[in-house]
Design brief:
The protein is of the alpha/beta class. The chain contains twelve helices and 14 strands. It starts with a strand and ends in a 7-residue tail after the last strand.
Length: 351
């Protein structure tokens, strides 16, 4: 449905030429929810704006539904854009228009009759859960409701493709999940293809089928979401995955945490279990094979697209050579870990 081939985009500044996108190759299949993730400044917004040519690439191909947008006349491009809805971070609603009127605006610009507008908008209001809000003004709505109006407006032209530019970053976590579920329902009901960008791994985990990670204008990794979480290949992907599994230490332990090993202290280890290791009896193996004492402080295992991922924080006690041997063993079997710090023995006693 969406194909980007050798896509390049540069910005000319007083400091010189800044490459925003470097030879992007991307395929988004029909009916797929495809996520692009990256840190601020990675080129995410530039990429998604190149898909509908709000930003014109310097070179490469942008093919949507079999049409190469780079070769279209202005009139042909306007027609192609009608099949691409776009959702923005800050809603961009007109404050003087009601919910119904905001959704109807693209249809008015296309000179639909009043009857055609009503026939088109009514089912969209129902799909997005806004039927009872159609006569409200934006000032009377919550952030989540405003974003639903923006989504409904993007759907009014019956697009084949929906582009989402950080659509949930201004929302609280609970509202974010509601919006993500709505996007999945829209994909399932209307069979649209969705390309979304985000800097939040929770969005990728909850909503997407496949994901690509963007760094300094380049796609450095792409995979099915479950595989991406359970087998990240690049350092940046591992950082993103670990961040979504991060847990805060209990306050009492955090207050006494030592950055360097001291006498009468023991290490605090955080494990990330990805793929098969998430369901293996790692703790019992460390106890029986290396004779360690282990105090489990916190832990969680969840499933992403049927792939198990988990995190656990433990305090470990034992002879120093056995502790080192156990960490080497964890590396060997593919368990990622970090030494968070060291805790005095009297804070977490083992006897």
């Amino acid at each position: 449905m969406i194909t980007l081939d050798s896509l390049c985009k540069n910005y000319i500044t007083t400091q010189g030429t800044i490459p925003a996108l470097r030879s992007i190759h991307l395929r988004v299949q029909p009916g797929e929810i495809f996520g692009i993730i990256g840190k601020s400044g990675a080129g995410k917004s530039t990429l998604i704006r190149c898909v509908n040519l709000l930003e014109k690439p310097d070179s490469g191909k942008v093919i949507v539904a079999g049409c190469d947008l780079m070769t279209q006349t202005p009139a042909e491009l306007r027609q192609a854009r009608r099949k691409m809805g776009m959702i923005f971070q800050h809603f961009n609603l007109l404050s003087s228009r009601t919910v119904f009127e905001n959704i109807a605006l693209p249809l008015e610009l296309c000179r639909y009759s009043r009857k055609q507008i009503e026939t088109t908008v009514a089912p969209i209001l129902e799909l997005t859960g806004l039927s009872d809000k159609k006569n409200y003004y934006p000032a009377e709505l919550s952030g989540g409701q405003k974003q639903r109006v923006a989504i409904a407006r993007a759907l009014s032209s019956k697009p084949d493709v929906l582009l989402s530019d950080e659509a949930t970053s201004a929302l609280d976590p609970q509202t974010t999940q509601i919006i993500l579920q709505l996007l999945k329902n829209i994909r399932d009901v209307l069979k649209v293809t969705i390309l979304l960008i985000t800097h939040e791994m929770s969005v990728i985990k909850s909503c997407c089928d496949r994901v690509a990670i963007l760094e300094q204008g380049e796609i450095i990794e792409e995979n099915e979401v479950g595989e991406f979480f359970s087998h990240p290949k690049t350092a940046l992907a591992r950082d993103f995955v670990h961040a979504t599994l991060q847990q805060n230490l209990p306050q009492m332990i955090a207050e006494h945490l030592l950055l360097e090993e001291q006498p009468n202290s023991h290490p605090l280890i955080r494990f990330w279990f990805l793929g098969r290791s998430a369901t293996q009896p790692i703790i019992s193996q460390l106890i029986t094979q290396f004779g360690l004492k282990i105090n489990i402080l916190q832990g969680n295992v969840e499933y992403v697209k049927q792939h198990a991922i988990g995190v656990m924080t433990v305090a470990m006690d034992g002879e120093k050579d056995r502790l080192q041997a156990s960490l080497q063993y964890l590396k060997k079997i593919g368990v990622n870990f970090e030494v968070v710090g060291y805790v005095p023995n009297d804070i977490i006693p083992f006897v």
